[in-house]
Write a structure and sequence with these properties.
9 strands, 31% helix, 18% strand, Rossmann fold, two-stranded parallel sheet, alpha/beta
Length: 216
Amino acid sequence: MRLYLSSYRFGAAADMLLGLVGAGARIAVVSNALDLIPEESRRAYARNVHDPLAALRDLGFAPFELDLRGYFGRPGALEQALEGVSMVWAVGGNAFLLRRAMAQSGLDALLLKRLAEDSLAYGGWSAGACVAGSTLRGIDLMDEPEAVTEAYDPAPIYDGLGLVDFVIVPHFDSDHPEAASVSAAWLAKQGIAHRTLRDGEALLLREGRLELVGEA
């Protein structure tokens, strides 16, 4: 299994992505964690602040946008769309919205299958990293579980993908408004295994070894 789970954007060790999938790799960028934000605002942010597609192109990859809403209830079509894709990259936003999108499109099951085959790598930041964990319990202190928009099932999903056996708490001790310290404290009190990440840091899993990269 190959993973790159970052606190904020690509972190301070983005070059290590090349070691996971190689230059020129096709990367499907999933931005459904942002579906609560109007499309016009999202485009303006991409133009003026951060565009993950442009950033991945600058790193030497061939990214494309994959909107999971177009595959809700169509897992077979999604599987075809991901043929020849080397990595799925999920951006930050609302972790519960992203988790719903993965379930409703069948991406969650497909990821587990292809990660086990080692035919695909998975990466993401903030919400994209959170959903990889064991559960989203505690993350509900950072993100609104009930927040939905058109075409989404109303019930939140608290089960993580289980790609790692702990909860990932991003933006810890960082210049972000998310209540990461509150989440980490709650998880510790409940005895739930978790790891905090500061902005710039990421967890890299390759060849069975999990390591923290991008440390300050």
